[in-house]
Amino acid sequence: MPLPYVLLSAAVSLDGFLDDTGPERLLLSSPADFDRVDDVRASVDAILVGAGTIRADNPRLLVNSPERRAARRAAGRPEYPLKVTVTASGDLDPRALFWHTGGEKLVYTTDKGAERAARLLGGSADVVPLGTELDWRDLLEHLHDVRGVGRLMVEGGGRVHTQLLRQGLADELQLVLAPLFVGDPEAPRLFGPGGYQGGRLRLVETRRIEDVVLTRYEPTAPGTGPVPNAADRHWLRTACELADRCPPSRTAFSVGAVVVAADGTELARGHSREGGDPVVHAEEAALAKIDPAEARLAGATLYSSLEPCAHRASRPAPCAELVLRAGVRRVVTAWREPDTFVAGADGTGVLRGAGAEVVVLPELEALAKAPNTHLTT
Question: Which of 55, 76, 185, 252 has its Cβ near the most Cβ atoms within 10 Å?
Fold first, then answer.
């Protein structure tokens, strides 16, 4: 199921602590960075914080700029993003500023917590029970499918950030580093212990903002089974964008492909008709750039905007067979091949029949089809 784009936002000290809490709270961000955060808030559909952050910080979570609120209204959007919190127990303070400022509010909780939250809040927020336990994927699917949230900003706390990163549900991390040391061992850290994705995050941007530094990261390590993670969506989007590089054709699809090792290292990429070869396919072009003895192929994921072909007349082996010969056992694609050129095309069936995992992300199908509209309309 499609999920919203999840953006984690936090400020930390040089020794890795979040903003300190309490009556004499230590603010790590600069005035200019607070304005940047306000701009990001104005760009999203919803802002989420954990119930612990509401209790500790009593945030309002508003778009403060009148100009930005006016721009949202002019675009047909609510003046303020939807405000969301998560609590297993339903223990929420009805006096908190969160409930009395801004626009709509939403609480995700358990079946048991819903009774308490509804009793405490009255009509201040919509309360959504998610079952006996909280499940982040169910929560995000509900936000996307029921509340229409395409872009979600998560502002804390550390436990929420930790869970989303560990489960591979965070599409982006925006981290502001402040030039000071907190030194208090009791101050909250941004991330807790546990198993995170393998490999390194991709650095997308570094920007100086007065005396702090903003860094933006994206995950790179592919998922490991049938459930896609945020990195799978990033890499498949890259494959779809590669399809735009294909020389135009009226007799073949434009497709992009990327092969990524389990640690997030890109091994190769390719696109249809690459290098002047009028019949080369994207997967074929990408795999040809990798040494067949490359040990990382066995744990790699191949991303292709269109499922690898099961039949072709221009080469001895179709792409599904080339993928299997290479040892790749996980494929992520956006679009199942239509019958435009091959009746009953089923590269997914060939791959699955040989034991490979095939994950289809239909939310990117429109992007995959875009370079091929002259063939499909």
Answer: 252
Q: How far apart are CA 316 and CA 318, in angstroms?
A: 7
| Cis-peptide into 198, omega within 30 deg | no
How far is the CA of 36 from the CAs of 165, 210, 320, in angstroms?
A: 23, 11, 46
The whole-angstrom separation of Cα 360 and Cα 261 is 19
Q: How many CB atoms lie within 10 A of CB 147?
A: 17
pTM score, whole prediction: 0.91
**Residue at 102: amino acid letter:** G
Quick: pLDDT tens for 85-105.
999 999 999 999 999 999 999
**Residue 137: count of CB within 10 angstroms of its CB:** 13
> From the CA atom positions of the chain, what is the Rg in Å?
23
Q: Which residues pair with 107 in a beta bridge?
A: 85, 127
Half-sphere exposure of 249 (CA within 13 A, CB side): 21
DSSP 270-336: EETTGGG-TT--HHHHHHTTS-TT-GGGGG-EEEESSPPPS--SSSSS-HHHHHHHHT--EEEES--
pLDDT digits (tens, 9 = 90+) for 142-157: 999 999 999 999 998 8
Token pair 């199921």 in the structure block, residue: 1
Place of tokens 């223990």: 91
